[in-house]
Amino acid sequence: MNDYSSDGIKVSFLRELARSDLLDHIKLCEGSKVLFWDPALKGPFNLIIDWPILKKHGVVKMFDLQEHIPSEVLENKWQNVVLLIRPEVKMIDLIYRSIRSISSSQRREIDFHIIFVSRKSTMCMRRLEEYKIVGEFKNILELELDLIPFDHDLMTLENPASFKDIFVEQDDSCLFQVARSLMTLQAFFGVIPNVTVLGESAKKVLEMIERMRQEVPATDKPIVPKIENLILIDRRIDLMTMMSSQVTYEGLIDELYGIKNTQATFPGAAFQYDEDVQETAASKMVALNSSDPIFKEARDLHFNAVGLFLTSKARQISAAYDEKKDAKSLSQLKNFVGKLPHIQAEKRALEIQTSIAALIRKGLNKQYYESFAVEQELREGLDVEKMNTFIEEMIYRQESLTKIIRLIAIQCIAGDGLRPKLYEFYKREIVQAYGYHHLLTFDRLEKCKLIYMQEKNQVISYPTLRSKMKLCIDNVNEKDPTDISYVFSGYAPLTVRLINWLTQGSQRDGLTYLDDIVKYLPKPCFGKKQKNAATTQERSDGEIHTLVYFIGGCTYAEVSALRFLAQNHPNKQFTIATTKMLNGNTLLDSIVEPSPRDIIPDFLT
User: Fold this and answer.
1) CB neighbour list of residue 225: distance below 8 Å, 6 or more residues apart
2) Distances (CA, A) of 554 to 151, 234, 402
3) How wide is the angle at C-alpha 577 spanned by C-alphas 573 and 581, nearest 5°?
4) Is residue 218 within 8 Å of residue 272, measured between CB atoms?
């Protein structure tokens, strides 16, 4: 993977820093080591460290955390069991059952260690004390895991519960992690002089940074900032974009198959030509990042442009192979042989991306297009005050509740809330069709302002923003776009429109350029200069580098829109950070209450 953005800002140090910290923790465990992973942590750590390095530092085996200690751990008399977990009580419950699966005499032969990622919680420590197993552990440590580079311009905390924790549970621990990650970036790239705050959680993060900076001694020679602007975005500034269906190539892969830690899993049958896929393989995992030359060019395209792009690439590769036929001299043949490995790698990448595109095409059925058409109508404000018959029919057919909630949320946001009768209608129908436990779902949806009732004398914001910011565009050229609205086939993400306007020239005047817009956004919104920041140096190429931090999650469509801005405005460069890469489905997965039969109480396990 390329670790550099186009203007030379290196983000690979984050990977190196996390790898070094993990190894320092592992070194504290002398002797042979067995790692037990919280399954949710395996993906992020796979981007940081690989098996040969762990093996070199005494790790002999790795397992998913489970209810029983495997017998081979006891039989081989491995000395250390290291448990890497998130600070969640359910993980402590699982650890308790795992430790109690072996006898006390067997436990005395093993040194147990817990490593909390990124910090231990009071609730987890209390549960360990309740189980009376604190004394079983030789070490209880914290491993600070901050931003993980996904690509040259994209970093993420990969905190799957960030949206729920911040906006439903009102838990600020994730905001502390955001602030800490920004302090790390500023330690390497200098204090970012210009900060724009959009939303309440963004304000809290800036306040945390200011307190943290007071605790760090000032240096005589501060680092000259390599990043001029920081834009902190509270996800609630633009929930419409999060609920909308993405139509970029990478966005559709995420919507239909789910991208986890830059990888996605597809049906193996679609890749039978691939020697790495056995005939009986049910699935194939594909890495999706800029190391794949075909994917790098295709990922930000509208899906309707992908077929034409792949066809063009196939012709180029075919022409490259034909050079062998035209080679008439030894030097020409030698030149072809030198290029052959690159041509073969591109051919293999093209085959994989062509198979993925074919799978996506199959997934875009009649029902998808009908649902997408309803999304577009609702975003444009058509009949948002009435019960939507399409949504009603989906409820009666008991289709995917996540899809239904996404449509209702779009209707709600477009109308600045639902009329009380309409809100109660949707709530009643869903509770009756899907279960009374979804009363909790609606309570959470209301807390985070995804679905809520209109209030008397409230300010009408979304219709005004839609008009003033030109969010809905007709006749978008999807194959040769001239506007960011192509990423949703005619809808421009509000977040990216704001970022574009904020980076018109300079952020130094804060939000004065957007005074007429700010009053319609969730408060607070303001610009601020950080104290004691070194003076920025004018770049010879005139580029202005902006770090955009999405607090609560970011979509791949927004990443594509920002890359589009950078490509079409040579003076703008963006690096994107987020608490988690999300889409409407994965966001709602953390909010929708699971069925009671899907939850097994601890005392029954």
Assistant:
1) 189, 190, 191, 192, 193, 533, 534, 536
2) 15, 10, 18
3) 120
4) no
- How would residue 1 be classed by pLDDT, with cut points 50, 70 and 90? very low
* Spatial contact of 532 and 224, defined as CB atoms under 8 Å apart: no
Instruction: Specify burial of residue 601 (Cβ count, 10 A radius: 0-12, 13-18, 19+).
Output: exposed
DSSP notation for 506-569: -STTTTGGGHHHHTTSSSPEEEEEPTTPPPPPPPTT--EEEEEEEET-B-HHHHHHHHHHHHH-
pLDDT 10s digits, 531-542: 877 766 655 556
Provide the residue type at 53 as one letter: I
What is the arithmetic mean of pLDDT over 417-439? 96
* The two three-digit tokens of residue 33, written as one number: 């080591």
Burial status of residue 603 (CB atoms within 10 A of its CB: 0-12, 13-18, 19 or more): exposed
User: Can you read off the two tokens belonging to residue 444?
Assistant: 């959470």
449, 445, 419: which is closest to 431 by C-alpha? 445
* DSSP per position, 230-242: EEEEEGGGGHHHH
CB-based contacts of 516, cutoff 8 Å, min separation 6: 468
pTM over 0.85: yes
Nearest Cα to Cα of residue 529 among 297, 245, 206: 206
